[in-house]
Design brief:
By secondary structure, this protein is an alpha/beta fold. The protein has twelve helices and ten strands. An eight-stranded parallel barrel has the order 1-2-3-6-7-8-9-10, surrounded by six helices. It has a two-stranded antiparallel sheet with strand order 4-5. The chain is globular, with a radius of gyration of 17 Å. Ribulose-5-phosphate (5RP) binds next to strand 10 and helix 10. Ribulose-5-phosphate (5RP) binds near residues 27, 142, 194, 219 and 223.
Length: about 260
Amino acid sequence: MDFGMKNRLSHIINPKTGKTVMLAVDHGYFQGPTTGLKDLRKTVTPLIPHTDCLFITRGMVRNCIDPGSDVAICLRVSGGPSILGELSNEDITTSMEEAIRLNASGVGMSIFVGAKNEDRTITNLGRLVNEAERYGMPVLAVTAVGKEMGREARYLALACRMAAEIGAHFVKTYYCEDFYKVVEGCPIPIVMAGGKKIPERDALQMTENAIKEGASGVDMGRNIFQSDNPVGMIKAIRAIVHKGASVDEAFEIYSKK
Ligand code: 5RP
């Protein structure tokens, strides 16, 4: 890995802890103005001081993020279908030049394993990695698995391993039973997506489990910005990810208004 690639990656994954708290706010790229992100600037601004890296589209970076902020940016560069269409029918929407212009520390796209268009999303990942390597730009593969496959370790392990084989530099996937098996088969860092909003204590427990089983952090959205205390929640997640706090300690941090 050359200097540029390592340096960008170190803006996302803290070299001191080997972990990251990424805040995912890219949902609008197929869901539109989803709950909690209708006014993205208002939601995200108070969370930025507690965030290592935003996962976000270029349009929202340009319109809603203060350029003076030192938060790292991982740019979602895939898209196409809306929530009303076939979600796997994605292509690359944002150029590498744009990612560099926006001073991104990484780029990310979804792969859909076991779904329609599986092969195209995988070859798109290969193309993105080929281009990203030329500029020292880390690539995040976001794993989605076909509906009939479910979020089980054997399928998530398949998707994560495929992402690593194709050359992604880090991968995002969901928590599942036997998550450690997903980690075992994947030589690149794994960050955990949060999924649908669940009670805060459960989300903290899921985070602790994922970290204990080998995750390199989180790329979490709804369980932070849809919480009744988003700042408390991201601080609590941070305490688990970077400081090894227990769920009880983290819940206390979340509970402080
Ligand atoms: C959607 C994404 C989102 O960033 C991902 O779902 C993370 O957000 P959440 O924690 O809300 O699930 O990549 O494809």
